[in-house]
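Example 3.2
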Amino acid sequence: MSRIAFIFPGQGAQVCGMGQDFYENSQTARQVFDKATELMGFSMPELCFEKNDRLDITEYTQAAMVTTSIAMMKVLMERGVKPDVAAGLSLGEYCALAAAGVMSEEDAIATVRQRGIFMQEAVPVGQGAMAAILALDAAAIEAVTDPMEGVWIANYNCPGQIVISGKKEAVEEACEKLKAAGAKRAIMLNVSGPFHSGMLTGAGEKLGEVLEHVKIHEPAIPYVANVTAQYVTSAEPVKELLVKQVSSSVRWQQSVEAMIADGVDTFIEIGPGKTLAGFMRKINKGVKTLNVEKWEDIDKAVEALGQ
């Protein structure tokens, strides 16, 4: 019997039209989008399905991504596919919380809307930056960045791809040092802020105030926290982990390795794009990875799982 993990992508995977086929084909998915519209005070279908400038603005992106992934997840679960564990990359962790029953879908969508606003406001545009460092191992990157002021490791994505974040000048300097240390490439990312860096500590504190009013339930299944790459099996640490997550490294590779060590052999990426599937090929080619981003992917996943 397969042990299944639901995994959810983060910001950057958004694309115009995401979830539209689910909205058109499923009453369950439609209800998720319509509930989001009610919560947000603007049309979520319009934001996700029609060409606009807002979809790539953090305060809108985060709610749109979580709405879309949860809608897709609920359709998959309706077809009898249930996870044994859940995890999500950065923003995707809120979908994992919904999958695990830790947070209601309404609270997940409403909370990430506030999270996006706080992250957007934390650092004036142009002062922060992020860069992907390719083909240099984590220890070598840490040896360069740890002594530096104003730069942090944001994401441990997979072997050969780590993202750094922080003050623009510090990130640019770190890129040069990392190339000198053997990195194949250092690519500046087109992002609106220095996410998962110490510059966002204040945004995390503001999020903590919002989370004080959010009901956290005992997990029905465990989820893996970005900050620790460990299973969370009780409600008690959830809020503190979510506050830290805003300014801490996302330990995605370590999270996947923890799930594989626990016997997970099938990962289903739910949401737009195939970013996590790409990471999975570099982390461990021996596990099965499925994607659900289009309506027809539901049948394919059910068939692949023999359900």
